[in-house]
Every structure is written in structure tokens, then in C-alpha cells.
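Board work, copied verbatim: Cell division protein
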Amino acid sequence: MSSKLLRGTFILTLGTFISKFLGLFYVIPFYQIVGNEGTILYNYSYVPYTIFISVATAGVPLAVSKFISKYNALEEYAVGRKLFKSGLIIMLCSGIVCFLIMYMGAPTLAKIFVDPEDVAMLQDIVSVIRAVSFALIIIPFMSLIRGFFQGHQSMGPSAVSQVVEQIVRIAFLLAGAFVVLYVMDGDLVTAVSVATFAAFIGGIGSLAVLFIYWYKRKPYLDQLLAKDKGTMDISLTDMYKEIILYSIPFVLVALVNPLFQMIDLSTFNKAMQSIGYSGKEAGEALSVLNYQTHKLVMIPVTLATAFSLTLVPTITNSFMKNDRLTMNRQLNQTFQVILFLILPAVVGLALLAEPVYTLFYEHSELGTAVLRAYAPVAMLFALYAVTAAILQGINEQRFTILSLLVGILVKLALNIPLIKWLETEGAVLATALGYAVAILINLIVIKIFSGYQFRLVFRRSLLIVILTLVMTVITWLLYQMLMIFLDPTSGWHAIMIVFICGGVGASVYFYLANRIRLLPLLFGDRIERILIKLKLKK
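↓ predict structure ↓
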């Protein structure tokens, strides 16, 4: 992998991982503060918010980074700057419009999720949806600035701003919910509304960081602008046509996960009640599926998200220069690294499902079963993010739309029948099948239009599978031994089991990978220097 791709990937991966790490672990105190009922209410607001924020940003970070990367490669720096200046105004306007639509449309959204006759629950959902909608005003504006930096191959501003945004959001969320419930003796709806409003506060923190970076980097950016060839004079209309063509697939890719969750929100309760579950039992199962386990499953996907963000400008650059050799090498490295990092993670998560769920929430047979079934789907989430990003890089966005629509149709068609057959795990299976079909379409398109051969990835995948099997056997044996002395249904015991088994499993996996020289093959000379510094290699 080229040093620039690896460095950019590492920076954005680190920032995204820390952000996701914080976004995961806050659920432990948040769950203790608001309980299962509070997380259900929180989920009803956050899934539609995710959909609205995807539409409001219009795939801006990736679309703008691709646009700017393309014209920077041609040394037409003024084109990107022109887009940036006008885009800030457009994003501010789109954010305000989406905020108004979500705020005023909250009652209609609420009726999709619950029985319209349940007036009290409807009012509660409307309140939390309106509280989170304020974030739409600021996030699109902020996303354009991130895209501008990424287009210049500068991943630091995005990474740092993500982390700051998450820290500020979580601090306000936890403190606000706690103060409302335990200091002011307020009600649960107000506490959850404050928690969702934290998205707006986090956005302000992130924007402040990006302004600081802009002030520091502006002299360098101005130097680039001075080197502009000036051979292209592209009108704003033509720019936005190109951005729209780029952004539509990005919007749909960003929407895929929340749309799958939205399908569950609108169909799960009815399907469960049709087979004899009460409304309360169905709501609790939905919370386990769409909030508790989903949070855990998304941990391994963090790496894929980071790779998809860095892939677009680098692959676009290679594609524009018709450097197919470099592009194929980047694709080889990316697929292999994704499999190398995520496969053992999802297997370990499934193996340790009971203590992991107990560690983050509380012991639950349903939570354990759903997490065990859901964990492997993380690999599909990751592969979809990466394959969709590759399609953007080779200018085959139209097929991203096709694969997404087919995947959603599969989820829609199978969700209710599979829930009636397998209950909560049925919704997981419907999600897996929808993603699998979409990924298959993406891979076929990549092969046809880029000429990419998967032979090397298949060979290395077999090696990664063997390493994962060895790790799994050792970890499972250790897990069985620990259960003689420790109880996975107990909080502190669960912590010990997860850290001991996870630590040993990861150590075995990376040790074996280093012994067979897979690590240097995947990560290059940089990993060699790290191993030498850690005295793991002479």
C-alpha cells in the first residue's frame, strides 16, 4: 500500500476508531441512566435523524473530496476553492431546510413507528425527534469543510473533529440526562430529549476544530492556489451537476444501514405481535436488535468506514491518471486488510457474545442470542462500505444505486416472513441476505469495469481464515476453562473473561500472522519498523 494511502488511512482510521469507541462505550452509563425504555425512545429518534443527516449532507465529504482530488490531480486548484466557497452557503441552506422538514414532520414519523391510537407514546417520540433535528442546521456545513480537507489528502482535520464532536456530544448527553433525572427530578422524555439535542452541541465543537485547522492550513492552501494552471473555467452550475452525480450514490450508501433499521422500526413490532408477543415484549426485543446489539456489531465496521473514506480520493486519482497497476495494488491491499482485521473481530464477538453483552448492558439470553447471530453480519457491513466506495472511485456510481435498491427490496420482502419464522434472529437474517445480494452486485461490477482479478485476495483469504480458526480454537478452550471459575452473567466476571480471552486471542492471531510474514505483506515496511521498536523483531 502506498505510504500516502496507508498514512491517510491510519489517521482517519484512528480518528474514526476513537470516535466509534467513545460512541460505543457511552452506552454503558447511558443505559444505566435511562434504562431499556429510554434507549427505545432514543432509537426512535436517532434512526430517522441518521436518514435526514445523510440527505442533508448529500454525501458531501466523499463527493467533495472526490471532486477536489480529481481537479487537484490536474493542478486546477481554483476549481476546488470555487466550489468550497459557494458550497458553504448551499450546505447551510440545505441544513436549515432539512431541519424544518424533520421538525414539522415529527408527528408523521412517529405514526410510522407506533400505533396512532397510543397518543402518549406518539407525543414522546415527537418530542425526542424534534430535539435531535436541531443538529441538522450545523452538520451539513461542517461536512463540507471535512470533504475539502480530505480532497487535499489531509485526513487529520476530519479525524480530530470527529473525536472532539463525539467527546462534546457524549459529555453533554450523559451529564444532561443525569441532571434531568437525578438532580432536577425530571421525566424520562425530557432526559432523552436532552440526550438527542447533544448532537447539535457536538457539531458546534467539531466546527470549532475545523475553523482552527482552516486558519492554520490556509497559507499552504493559498500556495497551491497560486500554482493553479487556470486552463479550466467551470461554472457553478456544471460543478453542482458533477457534485450531484457524485453525491447521489454517496447519499444512498450512507442511507443503507439506517434504511434497514427503519424497515425494522416500521415492521418488527407488528410482526412480533402477530405471533403472540405483547407490545412491550416486542419493543424490548426491537431495542435489543436495533440499539443494543447494533452498537456492538458496528465496532468492527469502523475500520471499513475509514477505508472507504480514504479509498475514494486515492482510487479516483489513480483512475484519472489511468494508472491501473497502482489502482489494482490499492484494491488488493484494501480487501486483504479489511478481511484480516474484521474477520477475527466478528468471530471473537460471536464467540464471547454472552460476556460482551453482559459487560455493556446486563445479562440477557435474548441479547446474547441476537448478538451471536448478528456479529457475522458486521463483515457484510464492512464489505458493502468498501465495495461501494470502490465503485465511486471508478465512476460507476449508477451500480451503487442498483445494488442498494435490490438489497433494500430483499430486506423488505423477507423481513416480516423471517421474523414470524425465527423471531428477532429473522430480522438479522433478512439484513444479512439484503447486504449479501448488494455486495455480490458490487463485486461483479468491479470485476467487469476495472478488470480487477480477485485471485490474490482469494488465496490470502484462505490463509486469514486458517489463522482465524486457530485463534478461535485457542480462545474457545480458554473461555471454557475460565467459565469454571468465572460467571459470564456477572458484570465483573464478564469484564475479566472478555479482556483475558480477547487479549489472548488477538495476541495469538497477530503473532501467527507475523511469523508467516503476513503482517509485512499487508502493511508494508512501516509495520516492520513498529515491530522492531516493540522488540518483537530484530
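The CA atoms of residues 298 and 378 lie 6 Å apart.
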